[in-house]
Each structure stands twice: as structure tokens, then as C-alpha cells.
Amino acid sequence: MKKSVDGRTPLDSNRLRLSKVKSTAAGVPAAISSMNHGIRKMGVTRTVRSLLMVNQKDGFDCPGCAWPDPDHRTSFEFCQNGAKAVADEAMKANVNASFFEKYSVDELLKKSDYWLNSQGRIAQPMILEPNASHYTPIDWDAALRHIASTIQSMHSPERGVYYTSGRTSNEAAFLYQALVRALGTNNLPDCSNMCHESSGKALTQTIGIGKGTVHLEDFNHSDLILVIGQNPGTNHPRMLTALRDAKKKGAKIISINPLPETGLKRFKHPQDYMTGDVKSTQLADLHVPVRIGGDAALLKGVMKQLLSLGAIDRDFIATKTEAFGEFESGLASQDWQQIVHDSGIEREMINEIAQMCADSRATIACWAMGLTQHKNGVAVIQEVVNLLLMGGHIGRPGAGLCPVRGHSNVQGDRTVGIWEAPSESFLAKLEQGLQFELPRKHGYDVVHSIHAMENGDVDVLICMGGNFLSATPDTPSTAKAIQTVGLTVQISTKLNRSHLVKGKTALILPVIGRTELDIQSSGGQFVTVENSMGVVHRSKGNLKPVSNGLMSEPALVAQLGQLLCPDVLDWASCIGNYDSIRDIMSKALNGFENYNERVRKPSGFLLPNPPRDSCEFSTPSSKASFTVHSLPDVTLSEDRFVLMTIRSHDQYNTTIYGLHDRYRGIHGNRRVLFMNALDMSEYGLKTRDIVDITSHFLGTKRHSKQWIVVPYEIPRRNLAAYFPEANELVPLESTATISNTPTSKWIEVSLTNPVDSSEEE
Ligand SMILES: Nc1nc2c(c(=O)[nH]1)N[C@H]1C(S)=C(S)[C@@H](COP(=O)(O)OP(=O)(O)OC[C@H]3O[C@@H](n4cnc5c(=O)[nH]c(N)nc54)[C@H](O)[C@@H]3O)O[C@H]1N2
Ligand SMILES: Nc1nc2c(c(=O)[nH]1)N[C@H]1C(S)=C(S)[C@@H](COP(=O)(O)OP(=O)(O)OC[C@H]3O[C@@H](n4cnc5c(=O)[nH]c(N)nc54)[C@H](O)[C@@H]3O)O[C@H]1N2
Ligand SMILES: [Mo]
After folding, report:
1. Which among 129, 188, 194, 333 is least buried, having the fewest CB atoms inside 10 angstroms?
2. DSSP string computed for 97-111
3. With 70 as the cut, is the pLDDT of residue 668 above it?
4. What is the atom index within ligand 2 of the atom nearest the CA of 491?
5. Using a 6 Å cutoff on CB, does residue 262 contact ligand 1?
6. CA distances from 311 to 332, 334, 360 (A)
7. pTM of the prediction?
8. CATH 3.40.50.620 given to domain 638-755
């Protein structure tokens, strides 16, 4: 028997270079950097051709983030990070049979994530037979038959797990969930379980829909925009344009974040240089350096102060909400000392935020992973809901809740059925459209899937995109769990660690990406996606696929459908013309009536959203609900720190484009631990000292070696390190209440100097 592998990212031996933290985001360096990145990877013609089609009405949806497109588009509707995502997908298909002949899986395991991704696109289907050292080619037909026969030989449909990452189109996702449910299970975990699940759960309970309530246009009518636990300069750069425009119209912006993220300080739109405007715009009027996990305390402080100012919308509260009484008395009993202590923010600054909220007629609250990936992720988002409800900021122009989604179609995937815990009403409608019976028992989310693998309950793991191993917590435990599975299948575009840490047999099935032409028997196809603000629109690639060996995601799923359950749908017509898929979707999903017709409108169409559209709430009482939560325990025992895992400017989740984090002044090495300079001196640490990190959770420990300490403007006893390298420290059992999202932003750790620890051992 071969020893199991632990899946950790290999240690990085490159030299770390430090530069000044940047104060202005984007600007000419950003524009040049995106063009260079493209040209290096795909040549001048392909770069210009593809970048001109990003986010155009007749082009493709940027595979970067889910930020919406403005109605009046310029010819450059992309940001430098979107350009990187496009260039990355347009790389040559060098990961082919001879590549795998050259490198064994063991050799590939020693390579960094950056190296793996930079080898290029995957060219053809490959198989790794049990105990083989190298992947070898397999033809499509044999690969799909292998999957079908393995699924058919399972004792129960629940022994199959079907993961989805959020780049998958509505059409592919819809067919995929239909196939999985036809097989008899709801085991449909997705990246959302690790991302905005807390937002979905928090919003469904309080406002009756698990989505945000603003439209891009609202930013132009807002008085105050809160940006909480989000780094838009890196992760949603086009949001900075919306913030800048809002600012020009008089809005104020507050950034609530342990880090002073560059994009929220100053912003310069690259296009402004063309009009001779060289000034940058200050974005945040106030930066609130909250402690990691201190947001609930901070928000309670702001709301307590608003109550004492009497700055609340009594009419809205009386007619549109419930449970205000309990909420009010909950706040009254909250003491100020704890608020100030837990948030790390002085009373004066809390009062200042409250005054800005009181002065605003229309407030938008945006947030991302800084709130969702905490033990109290759901509760803290409900405090944001409380704050907006107090002032009546829902269902009013320029105001509302704005969870800023990550993957470009993560919201759409959930809308069309990638959901391990579907509601009865959702299934009933789906059944009407699909016309076959659907399973009711809820399936596994991501964390439950890993536990099921640990227990030996999974025979087949299929991943529609993503990088299951590296995106999930507790890398060594997850790696061990995955290796118990009989067959793992990765449907991918680029090489990643999930191809190397796998089941007894492993398949890699390469697909065409967003940027590429998708030709089927009826001609060129488009797919559809939903952005962060509920707009469903078309996406059509224009580049020649990088290899003849690729299949489209909808075609791949439909071919599996033909093998596994030929009678439930007319799979052949779904492959030939994606309009046939959309015809079924229009019958199976609320809000998708006349799908084919409406999605052909140049800007697509808006899905219904009662709170936004008519200030109505589909909750049991038909009212929006205030909620009361006690504060989370944020005390740390002596010599402990809290670590958050964050993204650099040169990565897309587990895809590492480069080794720089330009805005934060980090270059050449990612194994960096950001630490407050006063904590460093207290612990006798100097810049570039090496430490080992141990995480602690309910008496269990996890270790990670060799991190380079770098001083940074971060609250005391708070640390930051990059994801996915730091995932080996995230305990699998540490998840948010209700949403079960791993607490990737709250990891309790201690540090040891490797010299000391070797003496201990
Ligand atoms: N270029 C690029 N774009 C991306 C991605 C990418 O990797 N690269 N990923 C996509 C995906 S899937 C997602 S989900 C989004 C992620 O977008 P973000 O949520 O912006 O990503 P993170 O790097 O996780 O940043 C979290 C931010 O929250 C702050 N934070 C951490 N803990 C706390 C806390 O307790 N309180 C507060 N107030 N703040 C806190 C951190 O300092 C950081 O600024 O971006 C999407 N877009
Ligand atoms: N510690 C820590 N862990 C985290 C997070 C964190 O902040 N901290 N963030 C979490 C979040 S928010 C998310 S969303 C998850 C992300 O989890 P995933 O979505 O699973 O991971 P990605 O890195 O986005 O997946 C990258 C891979 O997707 C494949 N891919 C890219 N484009 C396509 C395509 O068009 N089709 C197909 N079939 N495959 C494609 C490529 O092979 C690529 O290697 O990670 C989570 N994990
Ligand atoms: Mo995400």
C-alpha cells in the first residue's frame, strides 16, 4: 500500500522582497500590468480580442468576480484582475499526454500551486489507474462509461458526492443538479458552503430571500456606503468605480476592516488618464480598524447610539418589521465597556459612525468574507440587517443590503438548484418542470461531505470545477478523507492539487472555459449567468478552444445523463441546442418564465426580489424581522493570537497567478505572516523571522511550518496569512452556527520559533 499524501502546499524557498504599502489602487500601473499579463500568456492578438469582449453585451461574462455590469458600457469593462483571469484561461494547452508522461503524480506533488497553474490548460481526458504513478490518456467515451458504471455499482445513491464551484453556467448547473437528483440524492455541496452561505441563511430568515436587495444604480443614489469585511481593490476592483461615482455624487464611505486595504483608501480609474484627469479619488471617509471578530460588538455600539439619538424610522419599523421590542431591550442591556473592548474601537469613533448613519437618508451595507467566515457569521450579518431596518434602508432607492458575491456565477448556481438542502417549495416547482420524482432527504454540504469520506461512506466524488482539496479546511485531514474514495473525477480547465490528492482511481476531464466558442450541432451556443445583483444575462466566448480534446460542461453532463438515466430528459436535444435546456428551466424555476426570450435582451433580465422591488418580505409574518444575538466570545488566552486567512492581489482563490501582493508590498513569497509591530517586539520577533504556527480548537492542535513574519498595520493579537497555504490550520469542526461555513477568518493560534521548538522536541 502506498503511503497517503497530506496535500499541503510545499514550502516556498523564494526570496521575499518587501516594498511600501500602496496608498492608491488601480491607475496606469494596473492597466499596464493587466495587458502585460495577457500578452505574456496569450500574445497580442488574442489579448486584445479577448479583453475587448469581456462583459460586453454580446461578449462573455468575466470569469473573475460576480460584480454587475453598468448599463452604459465602455469598451474596457474589465479590471486588472479580470484580465488576469481571462489570460489565465487563454493559456496554451500544454498539460497533455506528454506532460503527464514526463511528470509522475509524486513529482507534481512537490511543485507549488503557482507552478501547477502556470503549466497551461489541460488538453485531453486523463486517467490515473489504482496504484499507477502517472496519469495516462483515456478517450471521452471510455471515461464517461467508467464514471457511469462506478455510479451504477454503488449500494446507495447517497454514496456519490457532486461538488460545484461557482464558475459553472446556469445551463450546466441546472442539468447537473437534475442528473444528481435523478440518481436519487441531494448531495450537492458547493463553494458557496465556504463563502456566502452565512449571508444566504441570515437574509432568508430575516427578509425572506437569501440575496441582496440593491441594484448597481442604487450606488448613485446613496448617502452612505458601508464596506464591511471586504477588500474590493483586489477582489472586486470594478466595485471601486461604483464607489468613486457614488462619492462624486456626495455619498460617504466607511470601511470596517482590521486592515487598511489599499483599494478603499484612494482609487484612480485607468480610463481617466485618457481624458487627461490625473487625480485619484479618496474613497473611504472613515476607516474603522475593527478587531477580527469584533464586528458584532461594533454594530451593537452603533445601533445603541442610534437609539439614544432617536435616529430611527419609526414608521418603517411599525409597518414593515417585527420583533423591534425585543431588539430594543436587547441593546439596552448591552454594556458599553464590552462593546469597546471586543470591537477594539473607541466610543468616539462608534459615535462618529452612528452620526454618519443618522445623517444618511439612504444607506447601503456591503460585505464579504470578513463577516461570513466566522462562528457567528449568520448572527453578525443579521446585525447588519438590524442596522438597516432601524433606519428603513430596505426597499428604498439608494439603500439596501449588498452581500458581494465571489465566483462569477455562484449566485446563479444556487438559483438553478445547486443546493444540498433544498426547500420543499423549490423542489415542488422543480418537479413540475422536470417531471420526475425528486429526493427529499437533504444531502451533504462541503464539511459534511468530508466527514462522510472520513467515515468511508463515499464511493464517488465528482467536482464540477474548483479545487476541493485546497479550498476546504484542514488540508491533511481532507487529503486523508479524499483518499478513501473509490473514484474521484475533476472536471477542470487548469491543473491543481485536487488532481494529485485523489481517490483510488482518478479522472481529469477538461472542459472549455467562459472565453471560448462553444459549437454544438445547431451552431454556436451561449450560456447564461446571474450576477451578484440578480441580473441574469448571456455569456458567449469568442476564442477558439485551446484544444480539440475539450468538451463543454453542459454536453459533458448530458452525455453522463444519457448513460445513467436516459429516460428522464431528452439529453440529446439539450446537447444540440442549449435553448432546450432553458425551455426546461423556464418551467422548473420561479422567475425564469420565457427564459429564452427574456435572456436574449441585450442586458438580460432581473430576477424578482420582493424586498428590493416592493419592500415586501416573504417571511411567515410577511414582515422583516429584527433579531437578538448575544456577543461572540472573543477572549484569547495568554500567548494566543487570532489568524485570518486572506487573498493576495495575485491569486484567484486557489489559483496562484503570481507571487506578489502589490498593494500590501509583498513580493516573491507567499508564506508571510502579517503581525502588529508591537506584538512582534513583545515576542522578540524581527522582520523576516521564521515562525511555526499551531492552531488550537477544542483541545486539538494543527501545525504549519515556516512562516515569515512581516510587520503590518493590523490590530494587536490579530494575524493574517494567505489562503490556501494556511488552510492546514483551519479546523474542520470549526464552522459557523447554522450555515456550517468553515471559520477561515477566526483561527486561534500560537507561534513558536522553530529554533525553540526543536529544543522542546
Ligand atoms: N482577484 C480576485 N478576485 C476574487 C477572488 C480572488 O481570489 N481573487 N475570489 C472571489 C471569491 S470566491 C470571493 S468569496 C471574493 C472574496 O472577497 P473578500 O471577502 O474581499 O476576500 P478576502 O481576501 O477573504 O478578504 C476578506 C476581507 O475581510 C477582512 N476581514 C477579515 N476578518 C474580518 C473581520 O472579522 N471583520 C472585518 N470587518 N473584516 C475582516 C480582511 O482584512 C479582508 O480585507 O472575491 C472574489 N473575487
Ligand atoms: N482558508 C480559506 N479557505 C477558503 C476561503 C478563505 O477565504 N480562506 N475562501 C473560500 C471561498 S469564498 C471559496 S468560493 C472557495 C473556492 O473554492 P473553489 O471554487 O473550489 O476553488 P477555485 O480555486 O476557485 O477553483 C479553481 C479551479 O477551478 C477550475 N476552473 C476554473 N475555471 C473553470 C471552468 O470554467 N470550468 C471548470 N469546470 N473548471 C474551472 C480550475 O481547474 C482551477 O484550478 O474557497 C474557500 N476556501
Ligand atoms: Mo467565494
Report:
1. 333
2. HHHHHHS-HHHHHTS
3. yes
4. 38
5. no
6. 15, 18, 10
7. 0.96
8. no
* Ligand 2 center from residue 355 Cα (angstroms): 40
Ligand 1 atom closest to residue 191's alpha carbon, by position in its atom list: 12
Domain ranges of the chain: 95-193+412-535+553-599, 197-408, 638-755
Residue pair 89/63 in contact (Cβ under 8 Å)? The answer is yes
With b for 16 or more beta-carbon neighbours within 10 A and e for fewer, the 550-564 pattern comes to: bbbbbbbbbbbbbbb
- CA neighbor of 708 nearest in space, from 724, 725, 696: 725
Q: Which atom of ligand 2 is nearest to the CA of 372?
A: 12
- Label the pairing between strands 505-510 and 487-492: parallel
For 197-408, CATH gives 3.40.228.10
Ligand 2 atom nearest to 406, measured from its CA: 14
Among 2.30.110.10, 3.40.50.740, 3.40.50.10780, 3.40.50.800, what is the CATH number of 95-193+412-535+553-599? 3.40.50.740
Distance in angstroms (rounded) separating the CA atoms of residues 611 and 118: 44
Residue 458 is given by DSSP the state -
Name the phi and psi angles at 160, rounded to 5. -110, 140
CA of 229 to the centre of ligand 1 (A): 7
Q: What number of residues does the chain have? A: 761
Confidence of residue 269 (pLDDT cuts 50, 70, 90): confident
Separation of alpha carbons 366 and 389, rounded Å: 15
Residues with CB under 6 A from ligand 2: 165-167, 191, 194-195, 369, 373, 406-407, 464-468, 471, 491-494, 496, 511, 513-514, 553, 645, 653-655, 723, 726-727, 730, 744
pLDDT computed for residue 278 by the predictor: 59
Whether 273 has a pLDDT exceeding 60, the answer reads no
Cell numbers that stand for 623 in this block: 414582515
Please tell me the residue having the least CA distance from ligand 2 atom 26: 466
